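Re: [ENG-882] Designed sequences occasionally contain unexpected residues at chain ends

Forwarding the minimal case from QA. Structure tokens:
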């Protein structure tokens, strides 16, 4: 496949994935679809870090816009040197790769640690009454691997979170989606880095 055709495939795919990443992270800020908990500050620190916005979103969208423009020979790109554009796309793809990797790591941590929620601390024998915290992270008397397995594979433990309603499922679905999106972005960004390097050496093969 020639460099131009590859860019026309990778660019739009990254545009779609970057947009989905931003949307998923925004939803993480509104558990249950309400702004109440965001206003009160009761949002997971991993959601507030917004890796899906700046990592899997903006960094990827910047690269995707340029890649798409170069692939389709848009106005302002076709006359400024295809090899230079290919080089810029390779550089931006490296930025996208780093952003997607950061999103992947932070989303994995967010998924592992679980959501911030209002829960009954006395059930974990390290406090009394209800409070805001990370019940699956704060659980005492459990090894980290065991705790994670219980949280991710035993849905009966999800009921420990009293508020926001359904926050555990919300957290698991959206962070898992971010993991999938960022992993795909890393593959496509890596492909475009190679594609951009070929473009620097060979130029576009349109009409050849």
């Amino acid at each position: 496949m020639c460099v131009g055709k590859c860019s026309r495939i990778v660019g739009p795919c990254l545009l779609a994935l970057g947009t989905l990443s931003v949307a998923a992270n925004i939803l993480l800020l509104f558990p249950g679809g309400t702004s109440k908990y965001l206003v009160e500050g009761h949002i997971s620190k991993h959601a507030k870090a917004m890796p899906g916005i700046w990592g899997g979103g903006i960094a990827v969208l910047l690269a995707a816009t340029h890649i798409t423009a170069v692939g389709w020979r848009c106005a302002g790109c076709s006359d400024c040197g295809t090899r230079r554009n290919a080089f810029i796309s390779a550089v931006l793809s490296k930025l996208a790769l780093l952003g997607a990797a950061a999103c992947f790591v932070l989303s994995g941590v967010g998924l592992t640690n679980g959501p911030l929620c209002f829960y009954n601390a006395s059930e974990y024998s390290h406090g009394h009454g209800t409070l805001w915290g990370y019940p699956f992270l704060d659980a005492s008397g459990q090894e980290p691997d065991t705790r994670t397995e219980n949280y991710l594979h035993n849905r009966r433990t999800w009921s420990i979170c009293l508020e926001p309603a359904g926050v555990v499922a919300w957290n698991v679905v959206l962070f898992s989606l971010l993991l999938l999106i960022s992993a795909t972005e890393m593959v496509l960004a890596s492909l475009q880095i190679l594609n951009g390097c070929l473009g620097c050496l060979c130029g576009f093969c349109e009409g050849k």
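QA comment: On inspection the terminal residues look reasonable. The helical segments are 3-28, 36-40, 45-48, 51-71, 82-113, 135-138, 144-153, 167-202. Proposing we downgrade this to a documentation issue.
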